[in-house]
């Protein structure tokens, strides 16, 4: 019942996205945007720098070309010195110069071979102009052009220097590839660093989760240790909640104890008076007070168990409880010479509940088995995931399947010749359900009854 209540409460909690994943995703998005923007700006700056350097080189070559040009008396233009760059002599090398005048055949570098640069005027007023145009052999040329009036000439000459931009574009592409790899590596390193920081930052929450697990399994009573300032109020509130829960349970225990005292005292008085008297009425009073006392004990046990079921962190080792009860049964039934076999799979096997509840359930089952056993009672306790399965068997006469459900009814006794109140198995069933477990009957391999008690298990770690 307690576990079912907890399961019902858990349904109100919906697992959302992990804080760590959400933080990393948000950081990854912003990191990608920032790195992409930074990479774009770096690429733009690099391209502009290369273009300025390329244009500066074109400007130096253009000045050199203008300085080397001369016009003779017949108006024929020539260079009195070479351009000092062998690429201007190699056909279609990607570097070209040309001097042209309106209505005249252009004077060009050998690298142009038999082609001309399709250029217009240089923009007028001696200002250079830079532009791109298609060139020989499918090349794309970056051209710097300028109009100059040479000494001894009345005409205006168009001077042009052109260079293939494929080299420029190759450098830009290589830079962009390298930049992309380095930015990706930087992003991965930063993301990994963020993941480490997030994991380190969320460590206190994991500590609280582990501490709460330890409290629920009974290995701890409170949240302890140093907590960050942001987490410390949460830990303090959780400890206050645990203290309040413990106080409520303690008040319930005291109330149950007071109620037991208030009920048993009058019953004891009546019972003692009945024993002091003789006659049918005295016997009837004695019998009825005994029945009332048993019922009071039964319902008070239920009330105490229901109060204890709400306690967080209670943990009871199973092996000591079984050993103590078996020793008690050996003394109680010493005259019958019963043999008790105990097999416990794990010394750390523990019940998530209080010792008194475990003793009440196992004690009733062992007492019932000992009453009916011919010679042997076998106890087996094993862990089954989040559960403990305690099996108690005897080699007695057993019971048929048709009447198995009846033995759990209040006051039901299948054989009046065997002493008892008929409340034992009902108490076991009620306590098991209150603790969140169950009890089932079956046929034992020994020939008698097999009772399987399943209870919630307290974890070790």
Give a short summary of the structure:
Helix content is 50%, strand content 17%. It has 461 residues and is an alpha+beta fold. The longest helix is centred in the first third of the chain and has 50 residues, at 19-68.
Question: Can you give a write-up of this model?
Answer:
This protein is of the alpha+beta class and 461 residues long. The chain folds into 3 domains: 184 residues, Beta-Lactamase (2-Layer Sandwich), CATH 3.30.450; 78 residues; 141 residues, Heat Shock Protein 90, CATH 3.30.565. 50% of the residues lie in helices and 17% in strands. It has a 5-stranded antiparallel β-sheet. The chain has a 5-stranded mixed β-sheet with strand order 9-11-12-14-13, with helices on one face. Strand 1 and strand 2 form a beta hairpin. The chain is rod-shaped.
